[in-house]
Each structure stands twice: as structure tokens, then as C-alpha cells.
Amino acid sequence: TGNKIGAALHKQIKELVFANKYGRPKPAATAPAAVVGELPVRLDEARSFLGEPANLPRWTAHQTVYRADDGRWVERRLAGDVPLDVSVEESRVSFEWGFEERPFRVHFDLEESEAGVRVTVPMPAGITTERATRTADAIESELVLLSEALGAKVEAEKLEHARQTMGRFHLEVYSRKGA
Which of the residues 17, 111, 128, 156 has an alpha carbon 20 to 30 A from that of 42? Predict the structure, then answer.
């Protein structure tokens, strides 16, 4: 019975997330190469905040990240948990979800700028144009929420749009296959 309920819930979530009437971005003719934004902090502050997995629910669609009993970070998903590794370098913070068939990596490249820190997020390798478009839309919203979490004043309408986008994207991420 639990599997039937889970399957029905999974189907409902997919229908909600993928329905155009709920704001799914239209696929672009070509995949965006990267998303670029600015953060109102110093490089070391951005690196420290981004590198802490416990902060992910504050600014991303990854709302179900937790530290397992063995100390590893994990993202809970409807169809199975996924190990999460975060690595911090001088000018890059990388997130890797450990799927058995192939890890999925997202890099946040950081560079000092006049406004604070310029963040460049290249689209992950091997994703479709449609997924790259959705991912770019989500990352743009993540950068809005990240800026706000780091103390920037963000216009209320822009903030609300980013939160709604993250809510939709969270449902998509949560309903994806686990590891």
C-alpha cells in the first residue's frame, strides 16, 4: 500500500511541476552556458556560506539536506536518498550528488568584484537543453535568495518570484530518482 501511495504522490508531483500553467520556463533554442550573479559580501564570506551544506535550504531547492549519523551529507528524496559532497577551493565551491550511474556536479565559480563577489555557475555537463533552461531559471532564483541570505536588500516582488521558483523546483528535485 505504501508503494502505491508513493507512486501516486510521485505522479501528482510530476504533473504539478511539469505543467506549463505553473510557470515552467519555456525551453530555449540553445542551452544557456552559465548563470552569473553578484553577491554583496567578501570572497571568504561567500565561500564559507556556500561551502556549508546546512545553508542549502536557505537559498536553494535542496530543502531536505541533512547530516547522516556517520557525518556524511545526504539529500532526502522521494525515491531514495542521495549522498551530497561539497568541496571548497580558493575560487570555487562544488556540489556533487553521488548517483551510482554518474555523479551530478554543479560548480559555483567565485571572483572578487566591485560589488563584492561575482558568481558564475556553468551549466552542468550532459544535461538536455530543456533541463539546462529549467536549471538556469532555478539558479537565477537561488542567487536572488543567496544574496538576500547574505544581507542584500532584494525587491519584494523579485524575492517572492525567487521563492515560488524554488518551491516548484524543490518538488521537481524531490521527485527525482534517488541514488
Answer: 156
